[in-house]
Amino acid sequence: MSNDTLRLKTLFSFGVKLPTSHKNTSVLSEPTNWLGITDNTMSIIKTTGLFFFHMFKVIMATLLSLFVPQKCPADEENGFPEDHSCTDQENIGAYGLEPYEEFVLIWNFITMGFALLNYLLVMFRERRLINYLSYDPSVDQLHLPKVLENYPEIKHVLHKINFIVMVSSISTILIFIVNVIVSGIMIIGTYSDGYRTITVFITNMLLMMNILYITVGHAYVGYYNEYGLSCFEFEPLSYNVIDELYRKNEHMEDAGQATDAMELPTV
Fold first, then answer.
1. Residue 13 lies in a domain
2. pLDDT tens digits, one per residue of 79-99
């Protein structure tokens, strides 16, 4: 196979799974739990569940003009003879919106789109960490940078996806800040319903900022320090070793017989 063909098959785009030839064939199968499920599969199941849970929180936290309680003025023409809590129809603009209110609603949906795309990238990053790395409690949590030097192909994949998530998260933070400002001017300045509006608005804002803080922080540390920090675990987790399926055969290395198949050309 020519070098050009090999380059096309290895690390194409960002984070594509490494070819089968780079797996440690001396490991016949991954260890399983009492359900017969591998640790990687369990991690993927848990991560997927948390992903959808966080996606719901992202939607709630970005569509501020829809989910923050507001007080609307009387509108007898549409059946509201006195001031009242805004209905979903009023929030979405069923009875008409002012130009600035339309702008806020559109910006809310733009922010949601960027936030969801960013979280898809975060999920993609997490899958790469699960695929290529593992956590070994007997090893120092900051051990990963030492071993990555022997796995340049995996290092390249993780380096690239961390950079993408870091840039995406920073961009989303900037867009969300604008979203908070324009939404706050309308909601708190015009349609405030007292403490209900203030508390829900601040809660949603802090919820989203916490999510973005974790994603940009872990991607930043992964990019500059080469640590494998998870964004989905309930407890802080740093993947610190190479997964067994991609670990080089130590006996072959000791004998000086490491094959060229374990070393990929850089993209």
1. no
2. 888 888 998 888 888 888 899
